[in-house]
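for the recovery benchmark. C-alpha cells below, seq after
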C-alpha cells in the first residue's frame, strides 16, 4: 500500500495557461455533437463530438433530465479528458470525442445536457435528445406491484439502487426510486453474485469474475479454477482493499472467502473450515462433529463485510451465527447468534458468544451483514432456522432488518433498531438491508411469503432518516430470482476516474499565542478543478460549549504555497463574501469571529489564526468544502498549535465523507519541529483518536511501539523522532478527532497531520 501524492507541479502549470488570452477557452473552443452510436444495451448510447482543440478540455459531463413525474435527482457522469484518452474515447489528433451516456430511460426521448469544463476554469453547455428503443424486461422490473409510490419528499439520501438477480441474462440491474429500470448488465450472465466497486460492477459466475463498466464494456478478469474454486455464490462485497467473494471448493461448501483487487488478483483467502476447526481443537472439542467436508452445507456463508474500525471481517453463516474474525490472522474475536443452535453446544465456540441485552433478539438465518454509520452491526434477519446443523434453533414466522450495538469488552450485543413491518412480512431466505446515510435504509424482502406460498414477491422499500417509508415495490418472483439483494447506489454525480474517500471539512482547536504559538492549519487541494471553501476562525462562541479562556478576537490569514497572502479577515461581517457565507449556514456565532470564502486552485495552502492586538486564548480554525463532488479533494491536513494542559490541547477534526471507508495515517510531531526553527517544540507528543460519539478508537505515544510500524514506514510517513506518535487507521465515513497532548507534564508547540492513503 503506497501513499498517493498530489502532482503539485502539474497543478501549478495549470494555473498559468493562457493568462493573456483575449477570451476564455470556452469562448475560443468549438465542440459540436455530430452523431450517436448504439450502446451495449438500449439504456446506453454513445454521443460523438468534434472539438476544435481537445488540449484545453478538462472534462466532459452528461446529465439526463428525469421524467416529468420523477422525484429522483438527475443521473450524471463526468469524464476527465485523461480518462477519455486512456479509454480511447478522445483522439487529440482528430478532435473526435466519444461520450458514453448510461442510465437512459428505455423507449423514451431522453433530454441530455452536456457540460464542458476547460483548464482555465471556464465552461459551457450543450443540449441534445437521445431516443432509445424499448426494452423487453423479462424480469418485470418495469411493472412492479406498487404498494406505495415514491413520495415527493427529497429527504431520502439515495435515488438509485442495484438489484442482484438471476431472473434473466442481464444481471445486475439498476432501478431508480421512482421504480424505473435505468441500467442492465450486458455480459449475458445470469448470476446474483455481484457488487459495485471502483465505479464498475464485479460479477462472478461459476469460477469466473467479470468487470462491467457503466458504459457497457465487459472484461473477463480471471478464472479461479486454478486455486480450487468450483463456483462463486451469494454476495460480492467491499473488502479492505478490493472485493470479497464467497467460493465453493471441491473440499468445502460455502465456507471459503477470497479477497481480490480491482484487477481480480487474489489478495487473501480465509478458509472457515480451518479457522473454526483450529478454534475447536484449541478449546478441546472435536471439529468433526460440526465442520464437514465435501458438499455438506455446514456453514452456508451468504455475506461478509470488512470493518475498518477494528480491521476485522464480519461473516454471516446462515446455518449458525455472525462471526467476527481478525482480518490479518483469521482468529475469532466474537460470535453473535442463537444459543439454542448446535454451535453453542461446543464450549470452544460458546466462549466467543456475545450475550444479548434485555429485549434483544438473536439473528436467525441472517443475510447482508454490513457496518452502519455509527459502527453498529446491520443485517437482514430472515428468521429461518438451520437446515443442516441440529438442533436447528429458533424459528420465526416473520423477517426483520436488525441493528446491533456490539460491545466486545463487555461481551454484549444490544439490538438498537429493527423494522418488523408489524411482524407481518416473511422472507426466509436471501434479502438485505443497507444504510446509505444516517437512518436512510434500503430494505429488500427477497422471497416474501416464503416456501409453499401461491405467490412470492421480491419486495424493495426505502426509509428516510425520519423513519418515513418513501417507496415500496413488489416484483413477482421465483425464489430469490428477482431481487436477491438490493444496494443503494449514487449515480447523480459519478466521476471517471473515481474520486476516492475525502475529507469534507477540517477543523483544529488549540491555544493561540503569539509568533510561533499562532494556530496554523495546512491542507492541499488535489485534483484538476478549483475548490471553493469557507475558512473560519472561532473564539468567543467557544464559550457556549463550556470552553474557558477563549480567544477574544481571532484574526484569519490565508497563504498559498509561495507564501503569498491570498485572503484575510478579522470580523466576518466585513468580508465581501459575508452574504454567501451566511447563505451556506456557516456564519460564525459572534461578530468578532473571522470568516472568508475562497476558490482555490490545486495546490498547498496555509491558514494562520492569531489574536487581534496580540490577544491570546483558545481558538478554532475550520475549513469547509463547498464543492466535494467536483473532482478535487482536500488532502493532507496538518495543524500546528501550542499544547498546554487541561483544555489547552491540540485537536484536529476531520470528516471522512465517503460511505466506502478509507485508510489514513495520523501523526503527532514535536521534537522534529526544531529543524523548522520552531521554538519550544513539544518534547513528547501523545496522540489519541476519537469518533463522533467520543469513543476512543486508538492511542499512541511513541510511534515505533505501535502495531502498524511497517505500513507507516512503507508509506514514507515515519516520524523523525522516536518520541513522536503515529497511527494507521481503517475508518468508515464519519467524524473524527485527533487530540495531541504532552506525555506527562510536557508542553510546547505540536503538529498533528492526517494523510489519506485511499
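predicted aa per position
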Amino acid at each position: 500500500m503506497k501513499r498517493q501524492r498530489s502532482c503539485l507541479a502539474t497543478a501549478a502549470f495549470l494555473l498559468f495557461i493562457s493568462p493573456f488570452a483575449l477570451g476564455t477557452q470556452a469562448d475560443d473552443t468549438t465542440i459540436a455533437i455530430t452523431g450517436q452510436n448504439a450502446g451495449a444495451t438500449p439504456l446506453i448510447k454513445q454521443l460523438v463530438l468534434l472539438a476544435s482543440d481537445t488540449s484545453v478540455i478538462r472534462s466532459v459531463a452528461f446529465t439526463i433530465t428525469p421524467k416529468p413525474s420523477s422525484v429522483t435527482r438527475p443521473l450524471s457522469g463526468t469524464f476527465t479528458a485523461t480518462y477519455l484518452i486512456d479509454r480511447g474515447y478522445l483522439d487529440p489528433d482528430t478532435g473526435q470525442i466519444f461520450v458514453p451516456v448510461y442510465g437512459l430511460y428505455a423507449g423514451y426521448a431522453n433530454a441530455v445536457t452536456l457540460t464542458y469544463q476547460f483548464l482555465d476554469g471556464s465552461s459551457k453547455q450543450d443540449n441534445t435528445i437521445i431516443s432509445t428503443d424499448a426494452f423487453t424486461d423479462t424480469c418485470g422490473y418495469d411493472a412492479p406491484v406498487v404498494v406505495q409510490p415514491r413520495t415527493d419528499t427529497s429527504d431520502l439520501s439515495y435515488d438509485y439502487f442495484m438489484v442482484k438477480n438471476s431472473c434473466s441474462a442481464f444481471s445486475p440491474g439498476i432501478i431508480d426510486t421512482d421504480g424505473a429500470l435505468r441500467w442492465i448488465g450486458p455480459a449475458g450472465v445470469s448470476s446474483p453474485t455481484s457488487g459495485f466497486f471502483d465505479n464498475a460492477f464485479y460479477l462472478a459466475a461459476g469460477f469466473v469474475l467479470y468487470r462491467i463498466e457503466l458504459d457497457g464494456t465487459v472484461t473477463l478478469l480471471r478464472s479461479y479454477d486454478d486455486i480450487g474454486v468450483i463456483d462463486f455464490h451469494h454476495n460480492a462485497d467491499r473488502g479492505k482493499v478490493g472485493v470479497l467473494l464467497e467460493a465453493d471448493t471441491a473440499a468445502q461448501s460455502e465456507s471459503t472467502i477470497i479477497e481480490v483487487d480491482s484487477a481480480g488478483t487474489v489478495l487473501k483467502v480465509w478458509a472457515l473450515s480451518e479457522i473454526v476447526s483450529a478454534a475447536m481443537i484449541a478449546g478441546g472439542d472435536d471439529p468433526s462433529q460440526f465442520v464437514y467436508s465435501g458438499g455438506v452445507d455446514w456453514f452456508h456463508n451468504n455475506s461478509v463485510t470488512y470493518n475498518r474500525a477494528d480491521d476485522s471481517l464480519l461473516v454471516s453463516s446462515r446455518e449458525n451465527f455472525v462471526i467476527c474474525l481478525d482480518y490479518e490472522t483469521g482468529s475469532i474475536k466474537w460470535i453473535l447468534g442463537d444459543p439454542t443452535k448446535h454451535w453453542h453446544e461446543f464450549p470452544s465456540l460458546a466462549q466467543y458468544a456475545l450475550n444479548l441485552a434485555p429485549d434483544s433478539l438473536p439473528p436467525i438465518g441472517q443475510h447482508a451483514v454490513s457496518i452502519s454509520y455509527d459502527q453498529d452491526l446491520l443485517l437482514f434477519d430472515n428468521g429461518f432456522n438451520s437446515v443442516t446443523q441440529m438442533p436447528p434453533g429458533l424459528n420465526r414466522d416473520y423477517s426483520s432488518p436488525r441493528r446491533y450495538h456490539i460491545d466486545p469488552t463487555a461481551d454484549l450485543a444490544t439490538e438498537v433498531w429493527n423494522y418488523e413491518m408489524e411482524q407481518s412480512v416473511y422472507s426466509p431466505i436471501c434479502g438485505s438491508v443497507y444504510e446509505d446515510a444516517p437512518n436512510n435504509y434500503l430494505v429488500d424482502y427477497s422471497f416474501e411469503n416464503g416456501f409453499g406460498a401461491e405467490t412470492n414477491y421480491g419486495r424493495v422499500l426505502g426509509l428516510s432518516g425520519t423513519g418515513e417509508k418513501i417507496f415500496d415495490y413488489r416484483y413477482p418472483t421465483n425464489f430469490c430470482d428477482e431481487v436477491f439483494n438490493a444496494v443503494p447506489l449514487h449515480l447523480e454525480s459519478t466521476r471517471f476516474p473515481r474520486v476516492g474517500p475525502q475529507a469534507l471539512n477540517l477543523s483544529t482547536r488549540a491555544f493561540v499565542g503569539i509568533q510561533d504559538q499562532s494556530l496554523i492549519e495546512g491542507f492541499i487541494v488535489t485534483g484538476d478543478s478549483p475548490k471553493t471553501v469557507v475558512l473560519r476562525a472561532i473564539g468567543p462562541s467557544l464559550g457556549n460549549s463550556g470552553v474557558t479562556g477563549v480567544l477574544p478576537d481571532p484574526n484569519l490569514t490565508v497563504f498559498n504555497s509561495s507564501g503569498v497572502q491570498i485572503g484575510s479577515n478579522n470580523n466576518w461581517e466585513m468580508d465581501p463574501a459575508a452574504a454567501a457565507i451566511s447563505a451556506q449556514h456557516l456564519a460564525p456565532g459572534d461578530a468578532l469571529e473571522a470568516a472568508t470564502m475562497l476558490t482555490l486552485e490545486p495546490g498547498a495552502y496555509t491558514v494562520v489564526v492569531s489574536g487581534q492586538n496580540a490577544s491570546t486564548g483558545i481558538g478554532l480554525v475550520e475549513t469547509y468544502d463547498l464543492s466535494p463532488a467536483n473532482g478535487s479533494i482536500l488532502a493532507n491536513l496538518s495543524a500546528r498549535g501550542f499544547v498546554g494542559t487541561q483544555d489547552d490541547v491540540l485537536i484536529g477534526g476531520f470528516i471522512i465523507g465517503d460511505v466506502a471507508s478509507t485508510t489514513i495515517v495520523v501523526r503527532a510531531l514535536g521534537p522534529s519541529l526544531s529543524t523548522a526553527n520552531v521554538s519550544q517544540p513539544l518534547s513528547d507528543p501523545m496522540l489519541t483518536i476519537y469518533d463522533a460519539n467520543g469513543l476512543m478508537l486508538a492511542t499512541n505515544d511513541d510511534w515505533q511501539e505501535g502495531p502498524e510500524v511497517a505500513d507507516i514506514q512503507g508509506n514514507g510517513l515515519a516520524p523523525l523522532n522516536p518520541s513522536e506518535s503515529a497511527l494507521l487507521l481503517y475508518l468508515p465515513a464519519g467524524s473524527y478527532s485527533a487530540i495531541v497532548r504532552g506525555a506527562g507534564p510536557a508542553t510546547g508547540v505540536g503538529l498533528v497531520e492526517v494523510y489519506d492513503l485511499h
